[in-house]
Amino acid sequence: MRKIDLIRKRLEATFDPQELEVVDDSESHRGHAGYQEGGESHYNVRIRAAAFDGQSRIQRHRAVHAALGADLLAEIHALALDIGTPG
Amino acid sequence: MSAQDQIKETVAANDVVLYMKGTKSMPQCGFSSRVAGVLNYMGVDFTDVNVLADDDIRQAIKDYSDWPTIPQLYVKGEFVGGCDIITEMTLSGELDTLFEENGVSYDKDAAEKIREANA
Prior knowledge:
The structure holds 2 protein chains of 2 kinds. By secondary structure, chain A is an alpha+beta fold. In chain A, about 35% of the residues lie in helices and about 25% in strands. Chain A has a single domain (about 5-30, about 40-85), classed as GMP Synthetase, Chain A, domain 3, CATH 3.30.300.90. Chain A is built from 3 helices and 3 strands. In chain B, helix 1 crosses helix 3 (about 55-65) and helix 2 packs parallel to helix 4 (about 85-90).
């Protein structure tokens, strides 16, 4: 499974999000640190889920990190997160 | 001294500390560069720690904050966040509030200019 699908699958399973957008942004980092041929290094995630209600920014990010898992995080150079609640 | 103790000492001894890739004058990563840029622009006096210069610190800082990525900003010993969180807090004005509450001096006009430019 490609990393982008794995990211989507794990986030969907954990948060049942109302909105989820995962973009492989690796190409825009071509030539920068962490870029690798073929992409799959830099991702942008936009997620909106009721599960984040009442959580601080740090708690939300930690929850996403935990849902993705250390194995997947270790294989990603950069992950930009835009986390919120629906509406 | 262990890397953990070293971090404890650094964040206790300095009001604002940024663990980053590269230095504030020569960042080595776009995300570190963005946070250092905001702090520089806002005229915040901060200590930069280049994790690329020390592999032990690079790993230890992730364990210290239970946070997998660099950069990491600390104010008065407390972990504030990484690039996404600092960007959001800058634009919302929460970073201003955090600095005010902790007696960290910064240029409010510069902060407003960042917000105007990103409105």
